Automatic annotation (TrEMBL):
InterPro entries: IMPase, Inositol_monoP_metal-BS, Inositol_monophosphatase-like, Inositol_monophosphatase_CS, Inositol_monophosphatase_SuhB. The lineage of its organism: Bacteria, Pseudomonadati, Pseudomonadota, Betaproteobacteria, Burkholderiales. GO terms for molecular function: inositol monophosphate 1-phosphatase activity; metal ion binding. This is Inositol-1-monophosphatase. Mg(2+) binds at residues 81, 96, 98-99, 237. Belongs to the inositol monophosphatase superfamily.
């Protein structure tokens, strides 16, 4: 999904303006989700595939997010979960209007709107010159149930409701609480994943699975989790959380080390020490990336 390199003479992207647009868009999408939250029985739910659901809440929230972003940042491409889109321009928005759809539909108050801006290789985001690789530069994850807004700007920092956040200081897996996500839709990677879960259960303080990848990453950035790993996700699941974790001083990487960010949905993250230990724990069980 790399694009051709923009001119190296362009002005740097206005990341503050992009963040403001993303925050407004996230609130617009969340308002629609919450308007449906108390009337879930009335939702029309479609089944895209096994355990892959979509409702009009997803679709309407996505439309609200896209409308806001197109009005404020028409120069950027858009890739969204329900309506697709394409990578173009100096940067592209990646949108998940409802991360944690199953939780939402079952009345479990743990879901979020996730919006990220990926600046493409050759784009300038600061005075240091053009980026060498595609890089997440703005991230917003908004949890409307707790009214928690996580956000970050590349090279500047990460915040929760306006307060700076940082990854935990836990130094060993023995003392770590990890988050993960089980295979639930795509089981092609189950033989790689299940041994990692077995090892994590036996080698850590505990493993949590709450069902919203964007929040797993945001909570890792805030130090609630010490690390997080998952396989078989979509780019929009991890795009915003990646920049939030990185700007909180942590690691959020492609598990296979092939991509500049976990665009393929195989993510490992945490503070510097725990992420390294987690990668070492996972590595013996990796064979090859499905589809590669």
């Amino acid at each position: 999904m790399q694009t051709s390199a923009p001119s190296t003479h362009q002005a740097p992207l206005d990341l503050c303006a992009a963040l403001d647009a993303a925050v407004n868009a996230a609130h617009a999408g969340a308002a629609i989700l919450q308007s449906y939250a108390h009337h879930r029985a009335d939702l029309v739910i479609d089944r895209k595939a096994r355990n892959d659901l979509v409702s009009q809440a997803d679709r309407e929230a996505e439309a609200a997010v896209i409308q806001e972003l197109r009005e404020r940042t028409p120069q950027f491409g858009i890739v969204a979960e329900e309506t697709g889109g394409k990578v173009e321009g100096e940067a592209t928005w990646y949108i998940d209007p409802l991360d944690g759809t199953t939780n939402f539909l079952h009345g479990i108050p743990h879901y979020a709107v996730s919006i990220a801006l990926i600046a493409h290789a050759g784009t300038r985001v600061d005075a240091d010159g053009p980026l060498a690789v595609d890089t997440p530069v703005v991230g917003v994850v908004y949890d409307p149930c707790r009214e928690e807004l996580f956000n970050a700007i590349h090279g500047v920092g990460a915040w929760l409701n306006g307060h700076r956040i940082a990854c935990s200081r836990t130094q060993t897996l023995d003392d770590a609480v990890l988050a993960t996500g089980f295979p639930f839709r795509d089981f092609s990677f189950a033989q790689q994943y299940m041994p990692t879960l077995h090892d994590a259960i036996n080698r850590t303080r505990g493993v949590r699975r709450l069902g919203a990848a964007a929040l797993d990453l945001a909570w890792t950035a805030a130090g609630r989790y010490d690390g997080y790993w998952e396989m078989g996700l979509a780019p929009w699941d991890v795009a915003a959380g990646t920049v939030i974790v990185r700007e909180a001083g942590g690691v959020a990487e492609d598990m296979y080390g092939k991509e500049s960010w976990p665009i393929g949905g195989y993510v490992v993250s945490g503070n510097q020490t725990v992420a390294a230990a987690l990668k070492d724990m996972i590595a013996p069980h990796l064979t090859r990336k499905p589809g590669s």
